């Protein structure tokens, strides 16, 4: 990319974008952490694998509530102050979990994690227009949200690797220390980001008023947004019903040792990162066929694992499938024009799906078998592919993504005379 005369102010704004991206990575890594540590934590705290799965359900449910609630109650607060507070809360939650003496204390820590996840994700997703020039909003938003996608596929393997060398408590401490470091980084890089004025919503910029939501349509309840929420419920629930219990499955059904499990999850993570960027490029044109393909890959891999198909191969397929789900759904929701509250609803649906999937999976694991939970995940993924298939061309293509730019970003654009994209 070509950059000319990039000013320190422009570079500072892009540093803020990358800092927020690492922040989204930290919160989602914290959310996913118990997946790779489930058997170790359940043994230490004296609960079953299914009960230990509540460590995934609790923050998911809390995040689903905190996202829209904070979007309303904290709308007048400076976004910088809000994000710093939520990152500090995440550090407290992770460190409390690291030293939890029993399961109730661990669940309390996970509730605090859920508050941080819901609020940080909902506010961070919409910061691109406030940090960079209009021409770079799409790139900045992708970078911010890449923290979610990468954490979803790399956070679990990283935590599992740390646990294999130093124990699960050290994995929690590591993420807590990362949150503290990010607290300092965000404080140093984020500019003031005022919330709404006391009189109501902030005044829109001229470009915002140039592309209003069509009359008679609520952006929160538009047809495309409803489709996204349904797809989120089916695909994400199916994934987490199975993925929450992938380590017990590998150990007890595939008879894999700790070293194999760590390597398999790292391979899954690498495939997921590849799937994330491949799906992002493809879904920019039309998210619908992308989501059909991704759901099919998830269904294929989870259904095949109990049939003694080599687990490494199926985990690669699974990673390729799920790795692209987040970015494809986000691109679809951007086309629905839901704004900050629409994003909050999406974050809520995503986290409800995590909670429901991990909870339902736990009941299947305790009541039926580990193989059965894989087939249940496959069935939900197939249902998601079916919904995407019948959603219609209008839901998949929608209207072009509209980019907003706040006045402070315009000023930075004038200072930096940025020609294209991010100054790297």
Characterization of the model:
- Helices cover 76% and strands 0% of the residues.
- By secondary structure, the chain is mostly helical.
- The radius of gyration is 21 Å and the shape is globular.
Poorly predicted ranges: 1-5, 199-220, 393-424
Count of the separate structural domains: 1
How many strand units? 0
Average pLDDT across residues? 78
The helix/strand order is HHHHHHHHHHHHHHHHHHHH
Strand content: under 5%
Largest sheet: none
Kindly, what is the distance between the CA atoms of the first and last residues, rounded to a whole number of angstroms? 9 Å
Query: Helix count?
Result: 20
Alpha carbon gyration radius: 21 Å
The CATH fourth-level homologous superfamily: MFS general substrate transporter like domains
CATH class label: Mainly Alpha
CATH architecture: Up-down Bundle
What class would the helix/strand composition place it in?
mainly alpha
What fraction, in percent, of the residue positions are helical?
Answer: over 70%
CATH topology: Growth Hormone, Chain: A
Shape: globular
